[in-house]
Structures
1.
Amino acid sequence: MAKAFRELLMVKRVIYGIAILTLLTALSLYVILFSPFEYDQISYNVRLPPLTRSDTTWPYIFGTDNLGRDVFTRTFYAFILDVSCGLAIVTLSGLVGLVIGLISGYLGGFVDLILMRLMDIVISIPGFMLAIAIAAVLGSNIVNAILAVVIVTIPIYARLVRSVVLSVKESLFVLAAKEAGLSDVRIVTRHILPHAIPIFITQATMELSNAIIYIAALSFIGLGAQEPTPEWGLMISMARRYIREAWWPALFPGLVMFLTVLSFNLIGDGLRDYLDPKKRLSFRVLG
Amino acid sequence: MKPLEVKKLTVEYMMYRGWVEVVSNADLEINERDEILAIVGESGCGKTTLGLTIAGLLPSNARVVHGYVKVFGKDVNSGSAKVAMIFQDALTSLNPLLTVGDQIAEIYIHHFAMSKKEAFEEAMKRLAEVGLQASFINKYPHELSGGQRQRVLIAMVIALRPELIVADEPTTALDVTTQAKVLNLLKSIVKGKGIPMVYITHDLALVAHIADKIAVMYAGQVVEYREKLALFKDPLHLYTQALLSSLPRVDVELSELRTIRGEPPVPGNFPKGCRFSPRCPKAFSRCFVEEPRIKNVGNGYVRCHLYE
Amino acid sequence: MSNGVLVKTVGLKKYYEVRSMFLKRVVGYVKAVDGVDLEIRRGETLGLVGESGSGKSTLGLVLAKLVEPTSGIYIFNGIDITQRFPKALRGKIRIVFQDPYSALNPRLKIKESVVEPLMAQGLDRDEALEKAVDYLKLVGLSEEHLEVYPHMLSGGQRQRVVVARALITEPEFIILDEPTSMLDVSTQAQMLELLKDVKVEKNLTYLFITHNLAVARYISDTIAIMFAGQIVEIGTKNTIFNNPLHPYTKTLLSAYPPPDPEFQWTPEIPEDTSSIDSSYRQGCRYAGRCPLKIDDCLKSMPELIEVERSHSVRCHLYKT
């Protein structure tokens, strides 16, 4: 396992991704601990350009927004929020999808039929429509936005895991495990699940970027985070109105979001490459 | 012009730890047009690689380090030698979307610039030669049994009008009854059409009936190269002897099989000195240190310190 | 059970349904195992010989209780286990598969694979590991092999692990489905010797399934020849090889080249003129290929009849 991890780190993309991510996380923690500004601290210093002096130890590094709040501070609070939301989404939908995929793939038959048709229905629901529906019934807030995204992304994991289960199910070592007398549950956890995990993690990493974008998008159209929550989509949405007078409250959240998503993509992409062609470039050339 | 001349051939493969020698200094030849040379060995001995090299089909992650392979005087890599290869798995060698007739005729259309009509006429002749009825011309590979597919492959190989055929375990995946039929077919092609063949197999019993000359390979080297009768009457190399006495027999009641301790070494991990020394019952001090050179015996040779 | 019969089957059948594409109606059956009566005595090795499609592997799976038979009775040590397979007996019947490369989970260490059958029985893990060491040593491996992964072992070593895994529940009956077919000749010899030694040491009974008559001759006490789901000839090793009766047996024997270049090898393999679909034929299954068929052969299915002591054959050419 450790050896595998070390080999993974040899993929350049992964290193770049982790580097950017570490930098951003470090910055965020630093901001939360040491920034002289609160994320919701309104002031009269509205729309000041980046690097304007303030009357605290820090300048307004990214400038201020329409309500005089420090964009730098808010951008990095948003990092924590958005990434946490992304993680929550991926964890929840991933786990539910994993379980559905395992059950559906292993049991087959009627159970598989029903579950997969259900997944088909869910995946054909446009995420935004669902979010609007949920918002209409339960209100617009970030928790409901997360709920909508979770529901809509479950099928991705379910299908992926199910396909792995189907292929592993027919392996001789699974038949051997049955022959050894293992219960179905034991077989799934011991033999089938470990084969599904690597692909699952790769997909989850890629989905993490999508989840962040989803939340930001929902917040952008007003269905997710509400003021004064520091959230990238919301910040950009608010900044749009006065973008002619101040470009910085829209640009910087977008830039940091871009870098965050990029880093997760790099890691996920590297993971995927690590898992696949490595097996092909194997040493089984001889006959 | 000798049909086949392999001289001091050494082939390496690129593995994750670098270039690894897989065939070492192989010397082989076929002298007559209707001769079958069998290459016998277990997995990892390099016989498939040797076969691929002779057919000019080495993949890009392999290279010939030194030595050469010449078919009728022409180097196999020059492109002018016509060597055809029969692989073990007939199912994946055939295009599942084309009929048998299409696949055989294709050869005539592309290689020999025949018209479709002529190509199909020739294809019918080939089918007859391999013992398949004319109705097979419209069948798809999945409609055929393993033995039938192998025959189609053989028909395609004949259609190519090769100067030499390399057959890599062509009957291993077949039932024993089918195997016998396909073997007879191959033999009749060699003797009847005068196309020399290199027959690669792990089955020593089979070799006794199909080969004229036999090369025994172990750990990348040809350890014994003899005429068939000589080899079976008087096997020289300890590995050949061990192989022969570890075969269960249909015709003889055996009370025990003589086993060789240990396992064949893997390329990259070949022992120092004689590669068979760790397992050889008669190994002595020199064997562990120095690689034995070829010692000519009759029309062949053996690679063993006991005979130097 | 009387006179030491450990395994007995009566009329064992396994039919697979063939369904049409559209409405999934049953249009026919693949009769993989079609009426097999067997008796294997304690301590005996029955060599089951057949080519691909003969049903030998399916029969092995049925006897290993991995596949439910369509009909028939399976008696083990006097107990009918056709419907109910008591937990106490589960470790007593084990199977060794053909492919050592796929039989072990590549992500599990050897020790995990070997103790697995004991874990299923609820044995304490430390005890199980101790047993694992004992059995690895029994098959010629060492304690160090516990900690490695399958890909670090050769095919022969992996197959030894599979054997250890089968032995660890202290079975009485082991089904070996072509255990040496994927091994090199020299490795095969080692494995056959190992199986012989282990059988004596652990008082085992074997069903050895193979397509290789030479291997069957070497390891078996009795030999059964299987064709199209049925046993067509069964007898002791001597009777079968000294006096083969069924035309198929004779064909098989002639198809094996002995490693002797001076032996005039002339295999008599008749052409197969039958269609593959056997579910509609009423006569002998082999009639399509048999060079010696008579009228009766197309009309009725011959029974398995004892022709001489310990030698039965299913063929109309032989009537008592």
2.
Amino acid sequence: MELANIEKLVEKYLNAATTLQEETTLKNYFTEGSVAPHLQEYAYMFNYFATAKDETYTKTIQLEPKKSKTRNFKWLSVAASVMLLFSVFIGKQEYERHQAKKQFEQISKGLRLLSSNLKKGQKAVTSLYTYEDTVKKILK
Amino acid sequence: MNQSDFLKVVLPFKDKVFRLAKRLLVSTEEAEDATQELLFKLWRSKEKIADYKNVEAFAMTMTKNYCYDRLKSKQASNLTLIHSNYKEKDTSLDKKMEYQDSVNQVHQLIEKLPEQQKIIIQLRDIEEYDFEEICKMVDMKPTAVRVALSRARKTIREELIKKHNYGVS
């Protein structure tokens, strides 16, 4: 393509008035080498555009990611609530047992006190009996 | 629509989605994540896709919106995207280094453009969509698209000339 024509197209290109077809013509001209020196900057541009189009997405496409992740979280919360219920239940049992033990200790302490005092009374009574016996002996 | 049908629809434009995402998000990893996310979203709404005439345009619009959202959240969390892992594929080794440099410069120049111009130049000059499709994808009037495109092209050209004049003098 002759230079005059290219210059005209370039002018149109800058004003964004070119069609896709005309832009392809420009692209071909500028990427094939032998560019007029005063149009050098366009060669850089079009070469860049051409190379930029070569970049591709190379990773594999995953269509079902993340689903399992959310499900895990769901089950985790279920497990956590079960654990919480269980530990509350166990804790309550433990507390009741502790309370019962405390009560038992208090009651047995009271009973021990009672029994020791009763023993004292009994001793006194027995000493009274022996007193009566000796009195009877002496009186006879 | 089963998986293989879906892939048949999606495969022709998955690279375009990826390139647009990369143009906007800069980093390759981000763009890969975005592409994956988008394809997954499309797959979930596969029932609707069957009714669309132009799935590709729909996908590109989705990509654009998704990337905007990503960028917004990046800015909100004070993270800036720094372009560090950019490697341009070599065209051919016998080309001069300087020439290659200038070609790569174009990439950086496009990066500096406003987002809207970035998208439009990506869609037009790299992916070669026609104006009607671009208007649908970016939801703009044809004249606005042309103005943005013309501005983008002129900016790139002027910057290139500036750089080269600095090099010479």
